[in-house]
Design brief:
- By secondary structure, the chain is α/β, with parallel strands linked by helices.
- It folds into 3 domains: about 1-65, Winged helix-like DNA-binding domain superfamily/Winged helix DNA-binding domain (Arc Repressor Mutant, subunit A, Orthogonal Bundle); about 70-145 and about 245-275, D-Maltodextrin-Binding Protein, domain 2; about 150-240, Periplasmic binding protein-like II (D-Maltodextrin-Binding Protein, domain 2, 3-Layer(aba) Sandwich), CATH 3.40.190.10.
- It contains 10 helices and 12 strands.
- A 5-stranded mixed β-sheet has the order 4-3-5-12-6, sandwiched between helices.
- A hairpin with a 2-residue loop joins strand 1 and strand 2 (about 35-40).
- The N and C termini lie far apart (about 50 Å).
């Protein structure tokens, strides 16, 4: 109650009066006192998600009505690589130019986040490119392409990439995930059957395992940050390979399209700036 009062600039007693008025209007208690703390009742738990949606809808109405000022809530998803590599720079740009935009971020894998966008639960998501056509309710823009590389201990940097894949213990990037499928396709196309030792879906962990001499790996050349202090070599492949593509997918049905447009524009600028630095 005290935290709510501070957030809204009211007294705790004022908050309590408003809450009691809401309980009288709904005809049911929403919170109860347990010792010196408060907890939500079962009835309160049933309406909390709907109440949050009402608040979001009210913010959207203000944004739509005030064409001269961009404000409102933007609900985003992000898989691991863009979440730590691309999104901080993009959100920094958005927040600096449009401080009235509030962003809520949901993490997950790409397939989960695509479904959330398609269902309308997210306005947009930073994900890997889908291996299937998108529905007409969504659109996509690529921001970064990441070709496959062989990741090896620095002491093996002079060895041919294909020889490493054939001869060294292999740390596989999980073939059941979108990010690992391109590596599996490359190995099959090159006729290479690696000596598999580990399989996981965590690029930073793979890099650290290579650094410890546990094997080599075939992974996308992902965007920084990488774990600090690694002594590994990033070796190009002799055969051309399709790059993993990371971008933004968005719902064409969202009422927050103006906010999504701002996000896309700042994402393009951040991507161009990162490419120039590289």
């Amino acid at each position: 109650m005290a935290a709510a009062a501070r957030s809204l600039g009211l007294s705790p007693s004022g908050i309590a009066q408003q809450l009691h008025a809401l309980e009288r209007e709904l005809g049911t208690p929403l919170i109860v006192r347990v010792g010196r703390t408060m907890r939500m009742t079962e009835q309160g738990g049933r309406i909390i998600d709907h109440a949050r949606q009402v608040v979001r809808d009210a913010a959207d109405l203000r944004s739509i009505a005030n064409d001269g000022e961009l404000r409102g809530e933007l609900h985003l998803g992000a898989c691991t690589t863009p979440l730590i590599g691309m999104l901080p720079e993009i959100l920094s740009r958005v927040s600096e130019k449009f401080p009235q935009i509030t962003v809520h971020i949901q993490s997950g894998n790409s397939s989960q986040l695509y479904r959330e966008v398609e269902m309308g639960n997210l306005d947009a998501a930073f994900v890997l490119e889908a291996p299937y056509p998108l529905p007409k309710t969504c659109d996509w823009m690529v921001l970064r392409e990441e070709p496959l590389i062989v990741l090896a201990p620095e002491a093996l940097a002079h060895v041919d990439a294909h020889s490493l894949l054939r001869e060294q213990p292999f740390i596989r990037y999980d073939r059941n995930q979108w990010g690992g499928r391109s590596a599996e396709q490359y190995l099959r196309g090159a006729g290479i059957v690696p000596r598999e030792r580990f399989e996981l879906n965590a690029l930073n962990a793979i890099a650290m395992m290579v650094d410890r001499g546990l094997g080599i790996s075939l992974v996308p050349d992902w965007a920084p940050p990488w774990p600090a202090g690694l002594n590994v070599a990033r070796l190009a492949l002799p055969k051309p390979t399709m790059a993993r593509r990371i971008g933004i997918v968005w719902s064409l049905a969202t009422v927050r399209m103006r906010l999504v447009r701002v996000l896309r524009e700042e994402s393009e600028k951040a991507s161009a700036s990162a490419t120039h630095r590289a």
